[in-house]
Design brief:
Layout: E1 4-9, H1 15-23, E2 26-33, E3 36-44, H2 45-52, E4 62-66, E5 69-80, E6 87-94, E7 101-110, H3 116-119, E8 123-126, E9 130-135, E10 144-147, E11 156-158, E12 169-170, H4 178-181, E13 184-189, H5 191-237
Parallel strand pairs: 1-4, 2-6, 7-10
Antiparallel strand pairs: 1-3, 2-3, 4-5, 5-6, 7-9, 8-13, 9-12, 11-13
Length: 238
């Protein structure tokens, strides 16, 4: 079933015009791509808020109806108000149904309740939660499911271990040296081991911060010394 977004052409531009639109319950937006000129549009805030409640809207080809003329698009970017969490601007990318697109797809990890190791206290460590894929718009998945039900403590799944839908390619594995670009996606670890790793990462981050502070102090001292040298030279010149 197609998802339709209604929009109208926007003539007024600028911060002032955008503020007026938001006060009127409208969201300024832009649609671009496919070799066409960008189009400035407005959306209804209530329709967009309802649309974005469905996670699939972020990874679906949508039918954008501008002044009742429909063209396929995907959501490329959106901005929210920091305090109110309301959408204040959106970017749409036009898509050619005959050409591949590149976009990020969320990962859904399934089978936790059936994993014996996790029932005994092991922890699931998610290294990444989304991957960049390339495919034709018609093959674009809403998400990628990764079954972790049979993983034991110490087991992991990497990019090359993900079963992808037909026609969908992980872009990181298209750069020639697959081993160099492969990476762990998820692993089952002992709770104690994971806590130790987090503690080590925290200590390393703190150490790096201290080193940066020391370097900053040393740099300041060197700058002060340089200024002093210049001052001394000036006194000598006098």
């Amino acid at each position: 079933m197609s998802i339709i977004i209604n929009a109208e052409t926007r003539k007024d531009q600028g911060k002032g015009a955008s503020r007026r639109l938001r006060h009127q319950g409208q969201v300024p937006a832009i649609v671009y791509g496919s070799g066409k000129q960008p189009s400035m549009i407005t959306l209804n805030i209530h329709e967009i808020t309802h649309l974005l409640e469905n996670e699939e809207s972020y990874t679906s080809v949508l039918d954008l109806s501008i002044d009742k003329k429909i063209e396929p698009v995907i959501i490329k970017d959106l901005q929210r108000h920091q305090a109110k969490n309301l959408v204040i601007h959106m970017d749409f990318l036009r898509v050619d149904m005959n050409k591949e697109i590149v976009t990020n797809i969320p990962l859904h990890f399934i089978g936790e309740e059936d994993n014996d190791a996790m029932r005994l206290g092991a922890i699931l460590n998610r290294f990444i939660t989304a991957i960049e894929v390339s495919c034709l718009p018609a093959n674009l998945p809403n998400s990628i499911e990764i079954d972790i039900s049979n993983l034991e403590i110490g087991d992991h799944i990497s990019l090359t271990g993900i079963t992808m839908p037909e026609g969908v390619i992980i872009t990181a594995l298209t750069h020639g040296d697959i081993e160099a670009h492969d990476q762990s996606v998820v692993a089952v670890q002992e709770a104690k081991l994971m806590a130790e790793e987090e503690e080590i990462e925290t200590e390393e981050a703190a150490a790096e911060g201290e080193e940066g502070a020391v370097e900053g102090e040393e740099g300041k001292a060197e700058d002060d010394a340089d200024k002093g040298d210049k001052g001394d030279k000036g006194d000598k010149d006098k």
